[in-house]
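Notebook B, p. 112. Complex prediction, attempt 2.
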Amino acid sequence: MKKWVYVVLVLVFCGLVLKACLHRDYPETMQAQTNIKSDVEMVVFPPAQKTVTINGVDYLQSQAPIGKFGGEIHSSTIGEGPKTFNPFNSKDNISSLMSEVMYDGLLSTDAETGEPIPKLAKSFEIIGNDYIIHLRKGIRWSDGKEITADDVLFTWQNIIFDGFGNTSTRDSLVIDGQLPTVEKIDKYTVKFSTIKPFAPFIRMLSTPIAPKHVFAPAVKKGKDYFYTFLSTNSDPKTFVTSGAFKLKEYVPAQRVVFERNPNYYMINKNNEKLPYLNRLVYFIVADLNNEVLKFEGGELDVINLQGANVARFKEREAHSDYKIYNLGPSTGTMFLTMNLNDRKNNEGKYYVNPIKQKWFRDLNFRLACDYAIDRKNMVLNIANGLGEPLYTAESLNSIFLNKKLQPYPKDLNKAREYLIKSGFYWDKKGHLRDKDGNHVEFDLYTNAGNTEREAIGVMVKQDLEDLGMKVNFKPIEFNTLVNKLVNTLDWDMVIMGLTGSPLEPNGGKNVWLSDGTLYMFNQRLEGDEKSPRFDWENEIDEIYIKGALATSFEERKKYYDEYQRIAYEQKPFIYIYSPIIITAIRTKFKNIFPSGLTGITYNLEEIYIDGEDK
Amino acid sequence: MQVFLYILKRILQSIPLLIIVSLISFFIIRLSPVDPLAELKLNPSVSKETLQKETERLGLDKPIIVQYGKWAKSFVKGDLGITSNGEQVSTKLKERIPNTLLLAVVVIFMTWIVGVPLGVIAALKWKSPVDRILTVLTSIGMAIPSFFFAVLLLLFAVKTGWFPVGGLTSSNFAEMSLGGKIWDIAHHLVLPVTVLFTISLAGLQRQMRANLLDVLDSDYVKFAKAKGLSEFKVVYKHALRNAINPMITLLGFEFAGLLSGAALTEYVFQYPGLGRLILEAVLRSDINLVMASLMMGAIMLIAGNLIADILLIITDPRIRVKGGVS
């Protein structure tokens, strides 16, 4: 009798193990291929969306193929989930993403060209410094109230210009100490005026528009109350939205569920109201590994893949129900930068050791470091080939990229020439010494825990030690590093990453204006704003301001080409590479037009499900 | 009456303890180089003015001792403050406590229902094959790191598709019938409960076995046997009652431990419990949230011990007679 029990137990155990191991064996076709060609150029985008008037309502008509209604899409966000659903309070990407789903802006971005196109607005005109916005007639909020110029006026005047919530949008619009003005012409027309021509303003018009009848009471109660308005504790029923979806349910640490907005103003070619999908679910997952497991388990429909996972998923793609798209280089940049600071802190001590200052402030030294770095090798070994070597300040998918700036390979001889020019020499042991005989030794920091940056650090260290420098590579905790970068400024060299915008270089003004909050390589704290600058720092300052004030794209491009050239020559940042975005999405989703500028699910209202399971 | 006095005394005793715990935790968090605004500072689109406003809103521009005073004052008043995202800490905790409590209660219930009888069986069948097999199984249970076991089970869920990959409810939970909801939660609970159950079962079973063996070896049990009492009466009426006392003390600790100790398992299974919340709060240095959860942990521990002691008074007449002080 007892034996029986053992036999059954063992059998059950074996059965479970087998079931877990068994999955169809696919032939290993070839060595994992990570060199996936970009798919973005081959995408055929549908014709531009049109405005169609039916019964006095100005609908936006999608020109994408007609699809079927129903179904849902499951996506995910990594981290803690949204921190607020109020589009004007969001300070992180996830919160912004959630509010963008619900609140449309006046304009949006063409996925193919990056041009601003009308969204909530019917059309727009730019006459000198005036931006005249014509609104759609008869379109409605999700609660049935009409969307009018009053909402636009309220959003810009009473929320943004009056400094409610996250004031970054407002702060970036201050020109010569003055804000743009906004006025209502009639029920469906609004006019914005800037003091001077200010090109980045047009992109700002994609800022969400708030329903006045919902937000006005909150604004009346003051800024402190506004900060908690539409927080994650709010009842989903109180949300009144203009976007394709509206909040249905937020389950903390698990998911955010959006449902179709029945009053959405976009229609398909059959004049049926979009979106096709009934629901949009974002799962909140804690880390990358869990996200991958959820995708493999079929709980997610779309995922961004990284590193070794790309090869693994690519191998199985042919036998699977998903397709992998390469969206090209992201706006993320990895770079190495040195501390060019030559000032003293409040206690009268130099932020950077004066001996080291001489090296870092020496262009030849920076160029030597630049030539010593093997970017291709890093892309291959760290990013599994899923990256593009980077030499410019604008990211590779930017419409302002200066294509004249040529890439170049690692060249130790050139690097040595530059060093010799500045009087550096090598002693008998091969150590690099400056002209005063000091051994070149410094600390290289990055944030611990970011395996990619740590790997870059190790390779940079090796590359620089080829030149006889001594590099002490120290990954430190993220917060400590940020504190060093923005407060105590006691660092020599650091590996960091930043993300920018492919459409608007002016978003980087905190990084490039010499009094910016993220002017890492020569950060000026309060009291140091007037300190002397390099000529090229002044030049970039000037160009950056001019670039924002110029109006035509061509004129702006000239300025931004120039700033990229200066950065390319002066090397305040030594750029290393940009990761490539790889996204997998189930094949049952149709109307997918991936774009290097806007991603893959930017046209949520047009996406539909065609396939057996719904 | 005596019991009430005893409880009151214990509660008063715990007040200085709580103050010390809060002081230590507050200063350690604030002195650590974690900057709650680090992420914002590295975001190129966030302006200087916004950063300045955030610093003032979170009170980071004041000395630590002032910050502590402010926190302690509102804590005593029962106001836990707001998180760095502007949400009420109390609502945040309220969202998570039921989930963690559910997990903890299920696990404790199952381990006791299974662990205690297994321990008794092992002790009674000492050195028999049954005892040996149980020893092997529990050793395995104790040896597997919970984190590793959780990951294994998660992989199992992905490969077989029998269980959901983490979480507590399905995405269409809101539309389910009551029965469906219960089934859905049970389905999601299987794997995390399995992990925690395996780990704590081993400890409990070993403890029970050792206690009972000790008691069975004592003189009064031998005397009872010699007197001719039936085996059943000796074991279940006399030996077991004495052997169970240390287990009750254990229960008090286990209750407090499970609330915070399941953090790793919660993290792997994406379980929306307290553990994950606290972990994220610590990483962000969200002082009010961290403090609230630490204080809650301390209070839970004190309460758990108190409950255990009260249970002991009920089960053990000796303590009652001595005047209720342990």
